[in-house]
Specification:
Elements: E1 2-6, H1 14-18, E2 25-32, H2 56-62, E3 71-75, H3 76-82, E4 104-112, E5 142-146, E6 151-159, E7 163-164, E8 169-170, E9 176-183, E10 203-204, E11 212-220, E12 223-231, E13 238-246, E14 253-254, E15 272-283, E16 291-298, E17 301-304, E18 308-309, E19 313-324, E20 328-338, E21 343-354, E22 358-368, H4 378-381, E23 382-393
Antiparallel strand pairs: 1-2, 2-3, 4-13, 5-12, 5-14, 6-11, 6-13, 7-8, 9-10, 9-12, 15-19, 15-23, 16-17, 16-18, 16-20, 20-21, 21-22, 22-23
Protein name: Calpain catalytic domain-containing protein
């Protein structure tokens, strides 16, 4: 707390108090030593004679005491001289009110730990920052969703202080930071290879050897994201508290599993992972005054993109991930019109994915649903094309 204190207040006359004080003022800041013993002993310390120039009423208003409780007042000029860093605490309205400006608060307690395994082993949770690409994803991962365009989010990461009681000081902080990446819309498990931030940047905090770091994200688009609190270097261990503040429910969740759990009745294990990205569609005669989205079906799994305004060129740039127990996957893809009253399929295409440990772009013909009756003339049933990117690997923990 910073206050201006009147000096020579005892010497003020009735006229000076009525028509404006001519007393000098000094800027003071109220501080507390968290160890509760040693206090400031320079100018304006508890026993300094300068306090005699301040009235008892003002001392009482300030809460001025001479107890050795670690709390003291210090001149602002001295504070600026001796202190080098200030941490500002921002308070969020997390009440139950429905008024604007209310934030949802989510708090997680966890740790960076090697868990007694080698660096980069599946149970390792101390992978370091992006500079260490081989181990970066071996950090705690939190999934969250954004549903509204232009969303805002604040994230605070605080590491636990380890105090050395004998030396009356804390142990050095480890260097920490935050990283957020946009991932596949249907991802429900840990990511194993970071998506290139140059292609789809979201946010990375500064890395600091400090108690807390902060990341403010603005204008976030709809989709699924992964948040990773990390230390700067691998193999560093510390406990932390992670707080997320968002204006909408983002449903954050700590990801524990590396891949989907297979049924005990299945004779085969997972053998491949595929990332299928719906890039854009070119439609010759698009429906008017409506939205379009893409629906993808593979085995028993069905996913969809967000809706975009109908036009001759519709862009989604939305990725999906699929884990499979074979090296050949089939995908049925439909273009669906989202009208005011009902959904209507306007076209479809098919894709067969081969696990070739590569990434490629394919242009698929969109066949009209109405044209199925006249399949002998493909030229008349083709209504456009769909551009997709497919990446398939025989290591189910590659992506």
């Amino acid at each position: 707390m910073v206050r201006y204190i009147d000096l020579d207040a005892k010497k003020q006359t009735l006229l000076s108090s009525l028509f404006g004080s001519n007393a000098d003022k000094v800027a003071m800041i109220r501080l507390q030593n968290p160890w509760g013993e040693i206090e400031w002993n320079g100018p304006w310390s508890d026993t300094d004679s300068r306090w005699e120039e301040v009235t008892e009423a003002q001392k009482q208003e300030l809460g001025m005491t001479v107890d050795e409780d670690g709390e003291f007042w210090m001149p602002w000029e001295e504070f600026v001289k001796y202190f080098t860093d200030i941490s500002v605490c921002q308070l969020f309205n997390t009440g139950c009110s429905t008024a604007s400006g209310v934030f949802n608060e989510y708090i997680f307690f966890d740790e960076w730990s090697t868990n007694g395994v080698k660096c980069g082993a599946p149970k390792d949770r101390s992978g370091g920052c992006q500079n260490f690409s081989a181990t970066f994803c071996f950090n705690p991962q939190y999934r969250f969703d954004v549903y509204e365009p232009g969303s805002e989010m604040m994230i605070a990461l605080t590491q636990k202080e380890i105090q050395n009681e004998a030396a009356k000081q804390r142990e050095p902080y480890v260097t920490i930071g935050l990283h957020v990446m946009k991932v596949e819309t249907n991802r429900r498990h840990r990511i194993h290879q970071a998506i290139n931030p140059a292609i789809n940047p979201v946010g990375t905090s500064d890395y600091a050897s400090a108690r807390s770091v902060y990341l403010h994200l603005t204008d976030i688009g709809p989709g699924r994201y992964i948040l990773m609190p990390t230390t700067y270097a691998p193999r560093e261990q510390a406990e932390y508290m992670l707080r997320i503040y968002s204006q909408h429910d983002c449903n954050p969740k700590l990801l524990l599993r590396d891949f989907p759990k297979t049924s005990p009745f299945m004779c085969t294990k997972l053998s491949s992972v595929t990332r299928l990205k719906i890039i854009e569609a070119t439609i010759h005669s698009p429906p008017k005054d409506s939205n379009l989205f893409v629906s993808i079906t593979s085995d028993k799994e069905r996913v969809r993109t967000i809706s975009q305004k109908s036009s001759t060129l519709v862009e989604w740039n939305e990725p999906f991930v699929f884990h499979r127990n074979d090296l050949r996957q089939k995908y049925s893809i439909e273009i669906i019109q989202e009208g005011p009253k009902r959904l209507q399929r306007i076209g479809k295409c098919f894709l067969t994915g081969l696990t070739d440990n590569d990434t490629r772009i394919q242009l698929l013909d969109i066949q009209s649903i109405d044209g199925e009756k006249h399949s002998n003339n493909l030229a008349k049933t083709r209504i456009g094309n769909l551009k997709v990117e497919i990446s398939s690997f025989d290591d189910h923990m590659y992506l």
